[in-house]
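Below is a filled-in request sheet from our internal design queue. Each sheet records the structural input a requester submitted and the sequence that came back. We keep these sheets so that new team members can see what a complete request looks like end to end.

REQUESTER: design group, bay 2
PRIORITY: normal
MODE: inverse folding
CHAIN LENGTH: 259
BACKBONE (tokenized):
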């Protein structure tokens, strides 16, 4: 449950200026009624145009009668066709639509024989009393893993560059995240890679939200487990039951050598 200061910190990190809750939130400041009133669209002023009368046509002088003289008839020659027909102009080439770079922040952690690639809900590093971090500790404890995971490297924040012509689209982001995790896997053994949050699932593999609570086989990364984000689990607690059922099926992967 979030208090008002923590809720506003999350909204500021997600660049949300105005928002209206679907239900009454505990510990929340009263809603501002002026945000619920939609401004009326401005009425375009009526443009009055002057009526311009057409000028009178000048009078023509009386024409003299014409006398037609007979002329010898001439058979017209058919017009010759051009030898080379004009080529059709090529269709204009449409410029390819630029793909906006994805925006996310991921942190890699080590907990026992598992690596955890988790989405940072606010974009900043975890703090010891963050609700999302406390939920992660509970999940690791329930899985039989150390509940104080070790931080591995700096957070991966995308896009890497705010300016420049370097490709920072989704495919470039996927290659970077996979290369980063692959380098960490070479340093120590990993029984299972946890992917927590949609950005972790999407850019460490090629899956999406439909893969939540399932096991993935990723080339170069091995066995991985896709989970919903910590923020989503706090907003929709009923998802925790599916996470627990999937955890019970996969727990033997990281505990088989510890028993």
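RETURNED SEQUENCE:
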């Amino acid at each position: 449950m979030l208090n008002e200061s923590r809720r506003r910190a999350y909204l500021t990190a997600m660049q949300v200026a105005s928002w209206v809750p679907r239900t009454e939130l505990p510990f929340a400041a009263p809603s501002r009624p002026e945000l619920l009133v939609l401004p009326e669209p401005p009425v375009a002023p009526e443009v009055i145009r002057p009526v311009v009368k057409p000028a009178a046509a000048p009078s023509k002088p009386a024409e003299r009668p014409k006398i037609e003289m007979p002329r010898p008839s001439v058979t017209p020659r058919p017009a010759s066709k051009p030898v080379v027909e004009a080529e059709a102009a090529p269709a204009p080439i449409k410029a390819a639509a630029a793909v906006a770079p994805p925006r996310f922040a991921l942190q890699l952690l080590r907990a026992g024989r598992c690596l955890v690639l988790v989405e940072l809900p606010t974009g900043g590093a975890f703090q010891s009393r963050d609700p999302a971090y406390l939920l992660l500790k509970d999940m690791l404890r329930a899985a039989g893993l150390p509940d104080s995971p070790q931080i591995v490297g700096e957070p991966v924040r995308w896009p890497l560059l705010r300016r420049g012509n370097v490709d920072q689209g989704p495919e470039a982001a996927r290659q970077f995240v996979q290369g980063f995790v692959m380098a960490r896997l070479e340093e120590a053994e990993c029984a299972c890679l946890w992917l927590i949050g949609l950005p972790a699932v999407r850019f460490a593999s090629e899956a999406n939200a439909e893969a939540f609570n399932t096991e993935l086989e990723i080339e170069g990364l091995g066995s991985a487990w896709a989970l919903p984000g910590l923020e989503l689990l706090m907003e929709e607690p009923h998802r925790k039951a599916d996470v627990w059922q999937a955890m019970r099926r996969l727990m033997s992967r990281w505990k088989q050598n510890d028993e």
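SHEET NOTES:
- The mean pLDDT is 79.
- The chain is about 25% helix and 15% strand.
FILED BY: M.R.
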